Amino acid sequence: MTQKHTTPDGLVIVDKPSGFTSHDVVAKMRGIARTRRVGHAGTLDPMATGVLVLGIEKATKLLGHLALTEKEYLGTIRLGQNTLTDDAEGEITSSTDASGVTRDAIDAGVAKLTGDIMQVPSKVSAIKINGVRSYKRARDGEEFDIPARPVTVSSFGVYDVREAVAEDGTAVLDLVVSVVCSSGTYIRALARDLGADLGVGGHLTALRRTRVGPYKLDAARTLDQLQQELTVMPVAEAAAAAFRRWDVDARRARLLTNGVRLDMPDEYAGAGTVAVFDPEGRFLALVEEQRGKAKSLAVFG
């Protein structure tokens, strides 16, 4: 008797390869997991590698709530050249000798881009301006401005400064950096803005995302590894890792799954998204406190 294939609900932490869009990875995962219900929590540029969080089946309902978390990156910023896309994918638009830039100047520039800052996203990005993707407007040669938006760069460290010579003969500096930031922060915009502040231009030449919220690179699997063995983090485990936990008794669990708004204990006031579990440890729902009651965001139980 042939066993019916059942796709597990849960998260898959992928180590995205360079050259793939996030949508390419989703398409590949649909084939591996044999389901159409696959989504991702926050895109990665094609050039970038590293942690991409995918949801399968019921776990796709978690994704919108996971996207608003802190992210961590390792990257290389090249000072001395601007590009059309603010990264190595775009053509070089200007070159300036960067050999005279001092470490003190770099550290001062980095300090200005740390903390709560206003950032203008890269023009070649997926942000919509009046309903049209920014990169489409840029490719069509349109002149347009993207409004600055608030982002938080909680840490921006420079580990190494390497002298190099670019292909066009320009003396450049390659900075090995680590960044911890809020969702929606563009690392290539940090590279562009640092280069602009130092007067020599800058762009991103390499980027690896090492963490999204609580999900780290050591839990990530390559697409080839996932093809061999589909490693899925069960949806309850994923929720417990990402959100504050609220354990309720059987009566409350029953009321919650029947759509009743429960009174929430004071300790969860202002806690944001909270994961609710029943006495058996089953994951029931994501809720948030609203005027002392549990407002349901997504129901799983």
From TrEMBL:
| Gene3D superfamilies xref list | Pseudouridine synthase (3.30.2350.10), PUA domain (2.30.130.10)
Task: Please report the stretch or stretches of sequence annotated as the Pseudouridine synthase II N-terminal domain.
Answer: 31-187
Known EC number: 5.4.99.25
Q: What SUPFAM superfamilies has UniProt attached to this entry?
A: Pseudouridine synthase, PUA domain-like
Q: Which reaction does it catalyse?
A: uridine(55) in tRNA = pseudouridine(55) in tRNA
Locate the tRNA pseudouridylate synthase B C-terminal domain: which residues?
A: 188-231
The kind of enzyme this is, by top-level EC class, is isomerase
Task: Provide the active-site residues from the annotation.
Answer: D45 (nucleophile)
One molecular function GO term is: tRNA pseudouridine(55) synthase activity
Q: Give UniProt keywords alphabetically.
A: Isomerase, tRNA processing
One Pfam family cited in the UniProt record for this chain: TruB_N
Q: Which residues form the tRNA pseudouridine synthase II TruB subfamily 2 C-terminal domain?
A: 243-300
Tell me, what is an example of a GO biological process annotation in this record? Answer: mRNA pseudouridine synthesis
Query: Main role?
Result: Responsible for synthesis of pseudouridine from uracil-55 in the psi GC loop of transfer RNAs.
| Family that this chain belongs to | Belongs to the pseudouridine synthase TruB family. Type 1 subfamily.
Query: What is the recorded name of this protein?
Result: tRNA pseudouridine synthase B
Source taxonomy: Bacteria, Bacillati, Actinomycetota, Actinomycetes, Kitasatosporales
